[in-house]
């Protein structure tokens, strides 16, 4: 008989852009989620099946937060700024390492995390994008690589989703998944599609012990250097 769990998912980084999409989709699917953030939302929306708690993934005891869940999703992310581009907090490497340790302590096995296509040694990217955006993210991507190495060294059944450059558009569920590289001609991934992929992997065990790429071809305006430049400036508060 399958083991009974109080929650379907524990979600770290629930208030981030992808985390919010995960909660919305989980609510639509009737899932029970323990939503973890560094601080409690100012006005947490009362939604059936969602329970909010606070924790510092770099300092607190995380084992009690994963012990009663069938699977764990980490939507932790580092907000891009000139400071974090140079010296990012170790949310990916140390934070995920502490989640791995907590899951081992609690006897939990299924972990899905967000990495990035650009953390791969070779990504199918436009040259201009590699020479601009990817270079600017160098320190953050190195922390992601350390995270992926920690996952590979663990005994957990893990999945590290490698989306393309994230795009704030509605979910389509028509994204492409590849184990080798970003699909040809596609280097953008919608937050909603990434959320859908993570939930599916967590619930059904898809893509275990692997780091699959996912993206879809978007309209030319969304994939242009001008669009990417505007989004980057917006992230650092200059647009």
TrEMBL record:
SUPFAM superfamilies: NAD(P)-binding Rossmann-fold domains (SSF51735). This is NAD(P)H-binding protein. It comes from the Bacteria. Pfam families: NAD_binding_10. One of its GO terms (molecular function) is biliverdin reductase [NAD(P)H] activity. InterPro entries: NAD(P)-bd_dom (IPR016040), NAD(P)-bd_dom_sf (IPR036291), Polyketide_Oxido-like (IPR051606). Residues 13-202 form the NAD(P)-binding domain. PANTHER family: FLAVIN REDUCTASE (NADPH) (PTHR43355).
């Amino acid at each position: 008989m399958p083991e009974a769990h109080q929650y379907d998912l524990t979600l770290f980084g629930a208030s981030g852009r992808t985390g919010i999409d995960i909660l919305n989709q989980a609510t639509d699917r009737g899932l029970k989620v323990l939503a973890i953030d560094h601080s409690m939302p100012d006005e947490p929306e009362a939604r059936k099946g969602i329970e909010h708690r606070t924790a510092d993934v770099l300092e607190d005891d995380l084992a009690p937060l994963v012990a009663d869940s069938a699977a764990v999703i980490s939507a932790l992310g580092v907000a891009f700024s000139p400071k974090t581009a140079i010296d990012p907090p170790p949310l990916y490497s140390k934070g995920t390492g502490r989640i791995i340790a907590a899951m081992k302590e609690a006897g939990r096995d299924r972990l899905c995390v967000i990495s990035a296509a650009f953390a791969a040694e070779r990504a199918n990217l436009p040259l201009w994008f590699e020479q601009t955006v990817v270079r600017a993210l160098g320190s953050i991507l190195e922390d992601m690589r350390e995270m992926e190495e920690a996952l590979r060294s663990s005994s957990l059944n893990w999945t590290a989703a490698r989306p393309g450059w994230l795009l704030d558009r509605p979910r389509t569920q028509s994204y492409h998944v590849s184990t080798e590289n970003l699909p040809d001609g596609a280097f953008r991934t919608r937050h909603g599609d990434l959320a859908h992929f993570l939930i599916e992997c967590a619930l059904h065990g898809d893509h275990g012990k692997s780091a699959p790429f996912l993206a879809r071809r978007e309209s030319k305006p969304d994939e242009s250097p001008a669009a990417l430049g505007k989004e980057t400036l917006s992230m650092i508060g200059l647009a």
